[in-house]
Design the sequence.
């Protein structure tokens, strides 16, 4: 059986070959209905992009890099899975690199690792300084994830400030008033933890509750052991919160363990909510309430935006009307997922 071609997809979908090409390249000026019809035709016919021909014509390798701080942090592992799936859908290969939150490694990623074997980079930075980004003017195209750097580069993230505000407002609606933030940072720097801390403070202000800097529990890293250590430390000092806002699920899972060791009931004595909606939180006891970023959308938007930039960088001739243009700041959806760690019990009035 002959391999299906673009014209076969166009005929099956009832659109032009150009429209099919636009869908394959994820151009923004395609309606959702048309995109869906074309994708259904692609799936039905089993169409696959001719990579060898495309790369020969375009001078591209068909490889993009995903650079994250740690692969053993579940959020980044789950995000990597979505990026790989999205890239495969677009007939791309993903090289996954772990930076270890090291500035030199992140700078190397910005520079394409000193070679031309990747067409573009999706980077989640933790150590880059603004001057590193400003000094990056050449290839490869780069899309940043998270909050650390947004000026002068394409950027994809959830609205972390709003998400933390909504999570804190949920705890306040439960009647909780002594809410500690595990991993909170209020140091004036730019980052995800700082954005989430701002959201926490905004929610407290809206409820008329004074902000106490001692309510922030600093951590060395965002691992379960760090969450457990931070909560152990404050409980050993005699502090008895009635809720914990944990700035990722790993911290929250560690916090659950520390609370259990001190005999605190969750959620009766202490309500706990995290961020990221990783798989482990769905199976903890109690199951973990969390802020769930749309990781699939983060991957889809980041890969699509990167492909636009790659196309702009490699296409000869003047800019076209469908070019992305100036750096983009794309915000994707999030939602509160309420589970046992905040649901189903009233507070204990600090009696534990």
Sequence:
């Amino acid at each position: 059986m002959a391999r299906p071609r673009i014209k076969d997809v166009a005929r099956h979908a009832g659109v032009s070959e150009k429209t099919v090409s636009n869908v394959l390249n994820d151009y923004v000026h395609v309606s959702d209905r048309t995109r869906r019809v074309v994708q259904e035709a692609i799936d039905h016919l089993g169409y696959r992009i001719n990579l060898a021909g495309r790369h020969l014509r375009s001078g591209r390798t068909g490889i993009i890099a995903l650079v994250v701080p740690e692969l053993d942090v579940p959020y980044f592992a789950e995000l990597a899975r979505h990026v790989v799936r999205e890239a495969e859908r677009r007939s791309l290969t993903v090289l996954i690199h772990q930076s270890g939150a090291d500035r030199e490694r992140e700078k190397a990623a910005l520079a394409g690792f000193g070679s031309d074997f990747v067409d573009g980079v999706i980077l989640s930075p933790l150590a880059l300084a603004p001057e590193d980004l400003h000094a990056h003017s050449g290839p490869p195209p780069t899309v940043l994830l998270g909050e650390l750097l947004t000026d002068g580069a394409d950027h994809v993230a959830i609205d972390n400030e709003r998400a933390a505000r909504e999570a804190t407002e949920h705890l306040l609606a439960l009647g909780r008033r002594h809410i500690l933030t595990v991993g909170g940072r209020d140091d004036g720097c730019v980052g995800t933890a700082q954005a989430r801390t701002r959201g926490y403070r905004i929610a407290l202000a809206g409820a008329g509750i004074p902000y106490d800097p001692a309510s922030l529990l600093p951590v060395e890293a965002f691992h379960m052991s760090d969450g457990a250590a931070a909560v152990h430390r404050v409980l050993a000092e005699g502090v008895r919160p009635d809720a914990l806002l944990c700035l990722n699920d790993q911290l929250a899972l560690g916090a659950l363990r520390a609370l259990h060791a001190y005999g605190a009931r969750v959620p009766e004595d202490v309500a706990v909510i995290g961020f990221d909606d990783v798989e482990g939180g769905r199976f903890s006891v109690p199951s973990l309430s969390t802020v769930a970023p749309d990781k699939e959308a983060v991957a889809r938007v980041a890969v699509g935006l990167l492909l636009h930039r790659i196309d702009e960088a490699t296409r000869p001739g003047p800019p076209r009307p469908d070019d992305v243009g100036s750096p983009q700041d794309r915000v994707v959806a999030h939602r509160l997922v309420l589970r046992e760690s905040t649901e189903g019990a009233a507070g204990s009035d600090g009696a534990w």
Q: What stands out?
A: The radius of gyration is 23 Å. The first helix runs from residue 6 to 13. The chain has a mean pLDDT of 89. The CA atoms of residues 92 and 155 lie 21 Å apart.
